[in-house]
């Protein structure tokens, strides 16, 4: 079965939240509760524009800057940690559900023998992958912990995807990136990756294309033929 990718692609790099699992919805809920507890209204558009796909503290800075607020670094970290505690609580309460179409795509990629990496800003990736029964598909993981420990810039910088390609021993031009966040699509494009797939979970098809997606799908199994 064809994976719907160019012939030169020999490795696949997937974002986690919103691409493989529905946890993006849980993150959005946690961000909303966190910011609104501070008296700052937070909409779906705020999520997409300011925090989606970015490392946690960068998301705090970005959203608050949009409101003309520049709190000190310790306050930014307190807010980000509060959000992280809340998303963990929500995960415990609501569980993790992988997208069936994404699991099908992973299964076909595994059958084809193509190395698979997960590249995410989340520090909870291992927990989510384990809860979603996805670990067996993952050959390399670059998560929020790796990004911090390796002093990498978060998305929209391409650093984390470049590290994922390095761990799969693949040049960027031979790797495909799968992303639902505008920041992640831009990272894939700016990193010189050979194929960038935008997954439209937020009615932002045109914005995904503008930020560098070579192809946009609603579900990953649309690529299969």
Automatic annotation (TrEMBL):
EC primary class: isomerase
E.C. designation(s): 5.4.2.6
Cell membrane found in the keyword field: no
Essential cofactor(s): Mg(2+)
Keyword set, alphabetical order: Carbohydrate metabolism, Isomerase, Magnesium, Metal-binding, Phosphoprotein
GO MF assignments: beta-phosphoglucomutase activity; metal ion binding
Reactions it catalyzes: beta-D-glucose 1-phosphate = beta-D-glucose 6-phosphate
Family of this protein: Belongs to the HAD-like hydrolase superfamily. CbbY/CbbZ/Gph/YieH family.
Protein name as annotated: Beta-phosphoglucomutase
Lineage: Bacteria, Bacillati, Actinomycetota, Actinomycetes, Pseudonocardiales
